[in-house]
Amino acid sequence: MLCIQTVIPMVTMYTPMALIVILPIFGKDIPYLGNLTSSSLAVYPLIEPIIAITCVATFRRAIRDMCHCRKKRPMPTVSRSFLSKLSGPQQCIL
Prior knowledge:
The chain crosses the membrane at residues 7-26, 46-63. GO terms for molecular function: G protein-coupled olfactory receptor activity. The chain has helices at residues 2-22, 33-55, 57-66, 80-87. It is mainly α. It has one domain (1-82). The two termini are 53 Å apart.
């Protein structure tokens, strides 16, 4: 996870910015580099938590539970006749 979290900022932030600085020095021009850079800078905050959620098992389970993706076990039900047997001669009020 740490390797991925190290590579993603390099690809989405540092490399496009370095190209914006270095390419004009060599007289090269990429027409849409500014759009690519601003888009990649905007996408980075979205990608970072997704990496953490997919790599850490506790986070995955929490998201799965929040989305109700796992089947829940049915709650056991207690019948009135069972409750009346437990309470003895008193009446059970439900």
